[in-house]
Amino acid sequence: MRLAADLHLHSRYSRAVSPAMILPAIARAARASGMDVLSTGDCLQPAWLAELERGLIETSPGLFSPTPDLDAAANRDLPENLRHPLRFALGTEVHCAPPGTPELGGIHHLLYFPSFAAARAMQRRLSPFGDLNEGRPRLRLDSRQLLQMVAEAGPGCRFAPAHVWNPFFSA
After folding, report:
1. What is the pLDDT of residue 20?
2. pLDDT tens, 15-52?
3. Alpha-carbon torsion 127, 129, 132, 110, what sign?
4. pTM
5. Host H or E run for residue 88
6. Are 123 and 44 in contact (CB under 8 A)?
7. CA–CA separation, 54 vs 119, rounded Å?
8. Which DSSP state fits 166?
9. Rounded (5°) CA angle 47-48-53
């Protein structure tokens, strides 16, 4: 099966991101672009995670669909041929910057979670290491520590590089 996916995006809770990045607008743009699967982005940010929990329902392990209300808002004035199923994966980007890391240092990683419970558990685990109110939090951890935490979080939790070619924050 072929799917068009964007697994690295942000909500309005990340620095330098449009305040228009809300679930209905994201879903509408994804459908208009032919996307089938999107990351939610920023799923560890508390207010955004609460919005995601209200707007998405699990439809298969690790994938979520818009609620009927969200779907109706996203489809408003969208041509019928663009109203195809859309799925979301709970994901976020984090900035690993152990103490002493320069401002433009550290490495960005993507994290994915199979459930809201797994995302909430990781929120609790990571909160001592950074301000999760920022959509892309700067964590006082190195990449190995973060990878270990994700590995211990259980099945379905995933860890990936966020930028491979970026000269500042890439693996």
Report:
1. 93
2. 989 999 999 999 999 999 999 999 999 999 999 999 99
3. negative
4. 0.93
5. strand 87-96
6. yes
7. 15
8. -
9. 100
